[in-house]
Amino acid sequence: xxxxxxxxxxxxxxxxxxxxxxxxxxxxxxxxxxxxxxxxxxxxxxxxxxxxxxxxxxxxxxxxxxxxxxxxxxxxxxxxxxxxxxxxxxxxxxxxxxxxxxxxxxxxxxxxxxxxxxxxxxxxxxxxxxxxxxxxxxxxxxx
Length: 143
Prior knowledge:
Elements: H1 2-7, H2 18-26, E1 34-38, E2 47-53, H3 59-76, E3 84-92, H4 114-126, E4 137-138
Parallel strand pairs: 2-3
Antiparallel strand pairs: 1-2, 3-4
Helix pairs in contact: 3-4
């Protein structure tokens, strides 16, 4: 999706230097793992997808992947999601603790550079300058 956005001249993607984005494109280590769990709140026993974050990953990277790229994928997809997605911001993924070698600064905790502003602005425009109030739990129609 990032390569597609690059080809069509997406305004946010143009703000990135190639070396800022290429590691995120090439390595799945930047993307949150999706774990299928039984949805205890659903009496039919359906499963839900629980997405946990990495301790080392910045809020900038999380917002870029979850609120921007995932939204672009959802807009482009013609197939509706069948499972509920739950973002668990309280518990980190326990099997991955080290950031990737030479990870771009914007992907790591405590990043406060200009890309943070660009991503916040882009996500604000996408949601009408108001991010969803329930970022922890977005259902199929909201992501």
